From TrEMBL, chain A:
It comes from Neodrepanis coruscans (wattled asity). It comes from the Eukaryota. One of its GO terms (biological process) is nucleotide-excision repair. Keywords: Cytoplasm, DNA damage, Nucleus. This is Checkpoint protein HUS1. One of its GO terms (cellular component) is site of double-strand break.
Automatic annotation (TrEMBL), chain B:
The gene is Rad1. It comes from the Eukaryota. Pfam families: Rad1. GO terms for biological process: DNA damage checkpoint signaling; DNA repair. Keywords: DNA damage, DNA repair, Nucleus. It is found in: Nucleus. Component of the 9-1-1 cell-cycle checkpoint response complex that plays a major role in DNA repair. The 9-1-1 complex is recruited to DNA lesion upon damage by the RAD17-replication factor C (RFC) clamp loader complex. Acts then as a sliding clamp platform on DNA for several proteins involved in long-patch base excision repair (LP-BER). Component of the toroidal 9-1-1 (RAD9-RAD1-HUS1) complex, composed of RAD9A, RAD1 and HUS1. The 9-1-1 complex associates with LIG1, POLB, FEN1, RAD17, HDAC1, RPA1 and RPA2. The 9-1-1 complex associates with the RAD17-RFC complex. RAD1 interacts with POLB, FEN1, HUS1, HUS1B, RAD9A and RAD9B. Interacts with DNAJC7. Interacts with RHNO1; interaction is direct. Belongs to the rad1 family. It comes from Neodrepanis coruscans. This is Cell cycle checkpoint protein RAD1. PANTHER family: CELL CYCLE CHECKPOINT PROTEIN RAD1 (PTHR10870). GO terms for cellular component: checkpoint clamp complex.
Amino acid sequence: MRFRAKIVDLACLNHFSRVINTISKLAKACTLRLTVCKLYFILSDKVANGGASMWCELCQANFFDEFQMEGVAADHNEIYLELVPENLSRALKTAQSAKAVKIKLTNKHCPCLRVAVELPSLSSSSRIVTHDIPVGVIPRRIWNDFREPSVPDFDVSIYLPVLKTMKSVVERMKNLSNFIVIEANLSGEMNLKIETDLVSVTTHFKDLRNPPWVSEDGCQSSAEGRHLESMAEACIDIKKLQQLLAGQQVNPTKALCNIVSKRIVHFILLHEDVSLQYFIPALA
Amino acid sequence: MPFSAQLPASGEPYVLSASLDNARHLSSLLRAVHFQDHATCFATASGLRVTVEDAKCIQANAFIQAEIFQEFAVQEESVIFRINLSVLLDCLTIFGTSSLPGTSTALRMCYRGYGYPLMLFLEEGGVVTVCKINTQEPEELLDFDFCSTKVVNKIILQSEGLREAFAELDMTSEVLQITMSPDKPYFRLSTFGNAGSAHLDYPKDSDLMEAFHCNQTQTNRYKTSLLKPSTKALALSCKVSIRTDAQGFLSLQYMIRNEDGQICFVEYYCCPDENITEAEL
């Protein structure tokens, strides 16, 4: 098992740092899956996460100038690592004006991701700051736990409103309630609602579009034949939604959510080089 | 008016209904008196007064006169209710506190009367938020009985002169001592903290002094913790009037100019700290 990678381009480095920053806001610990072409950050839906799960995919070629990976075996050319993304985020914070960043999987006393940040210096030799981030190697026998979640059989799919507005509203609502109801219909309408003994607040978004889904096997999804005005709704933990929105520092190219009434809300946020899916289960 | 579709068709009039093109005209003033969760709202044809009290020693009032609103109608002689001010502020600022120049949140406020919730309709950029905030029985408020005939000393200062002093108030000092006198030091703020005593003097002929009417030398102490929240009102204001009466009660009146140049007032009343004896002064 070997892994070494290098980023030299400052823009790529900043982009990568932003992605890790977003991930660290969504998960205290997660799985990093390395393949020849891609990196995946995965959080599977355990009770400890409040049932939320995440699937984030990056094309390594868009970020790394050098990328060498040798998996656990020839026919399973992948590496699965458990790590705390906040550690990686903090290491990358020192790299804001770096000349290069090298990441290498090492096993001196225990498995670590060694992040070596080469910083500019006035003298001829560079300054290097090294961070050793402890990781856990995930054995092949449980790789099945980390398969890509399938798009649920949703009732309504809708593009999200302007994230800045949605972020402000959800942040204020978080002061007022622990739970939020998100409901939407196929007429481009979405409502965010909170209700407590003290106060009830509803924000109405209109003129959002509903993405046209083409199902792979040609079957009708449960969304077809649905009354256009009928709302699909789910009551979710407001902190999870707020963390998802707070982690979006740059506006995504596409942002949408799929609602399975009273079961789960599936968010898809697409940037040029990164796709992020986040599943928040509905509370009883 | 887009909100009229959401008003009930019952024909029952709202005892209070108001519209404001820029909700910040209201929210910024309310923040200046937000040092407790609960506030009493009092509405008459002249406008809205929001009162916050603490420890039976300090009272703050924010006045938003009817002219500030685009529409302000009160059906009864006066309307009064108690409300959670933190919740009210979260609702008024639902679209965020900082806004791009040129954009603002429009507000419509409706109240059906005793026992009913306060309804807020807020709109920004085509997005509408509807809030229903429960109201409570109003509690009796302190009456400081502060009228101009009982004033012993009064000065009016430009706020910029006091802002730094209040922002850097030595919080390790339990009291803020205010001396007002027709003779030197004229107007002095003193604190007695862990690091030592600090005195800040404002001479009566200072540029910052807009009016100086001191008849008697008075030195009074007020609990710093109670006065600290007034810093918010000071930060918003352009002028402040400082008055004391014979018992040492303090009145601070802040003149605040909003984004549209309209004038509003916030006042703070504070009881003197009784625990200090003359011997300690």
